Amino acid sequence: MKLFNTKNIIKLLAVLFIAITVVSCQRDGSSEEDDIPQEDLTNILLNIKDKTTGEVKTYNYSMGAGGAQAIQLTDGKTYEVTAQFKNGNEDATQEIKDAKDEHFLVFNFPNSDITLTRTDDASSTRADGKRVGLRTEWVVNKAVKNASATSQLIFTLYHEPASVSEDSQASGNGIVYGTQVGGETDAQANYTITN
């Protein structure tokens, strides 16, 4: 019996192809290193509660679908905001909490004047004392600063940043809450802001 007959060569090539495909689809390390790989997140939901009326509106950003959903905010109002991450019908938010030391959210508000405070409890506060940002409070000073420009929220979840800061900084005509050094983007959502 020949060791290198056509059937054996085809089987060997098939096994090699599968092995190469599996390895090439992973990010920097094994799939176990990232508790929620980019490919697993399908939706980002922002649940925005008006503190005065108690009314809650949910804004659902579908990953890869394109188009920015409009968040309606009223100048002078305060909102409690919770972020939820989904993989299809499954809630992936708990996975972020379980690996809270490996995650951090950055909120960028181009063309808006919004004061953001992180209000995470212990379940989403990292060992270094920095809050991930799954729960926040927004005081809307001016939802749309310049009517001729687009007001947005660019909302980014980072995985394994080398360092993070909750500090805010001016960025163009808006404010960015939170900074990170290094890491990878697990998810990013772009919302428009209207009033």
In a nutshell, what does this entry contain?
With 195 residues, this protein is mainly beta.
Description of the structure:
The chain has 195 residues and is mostly beta strands. Helix content is 13%, strand content 45%. The protein contains 2 helices and 12 strands. Strands 1, 2, 4, 5, 7 and 8 form a 6-stranded antiparallel sheet that branches. A 6-stranded mixed sheet has the order 3-12-9-6-11-10, with no helix packed on it. The longest helix has 19 residues, at 6-24. Residues 12-34 have low confidence and may be disordered.
Strand content: 35-45%
Q: What integer value in Å does the Rg equal?
A: 21 Å
Low-pLDDT stretches: 12-34
Oligomerization state of this entry? single chain
Q: Find the structural class using helix and strand composition.
A: mainly beta
Q: What is the general shape?
A: globular
Helix content: 10-25%
Quote the distance from N terminus to C terminus. Answer: 78 Å
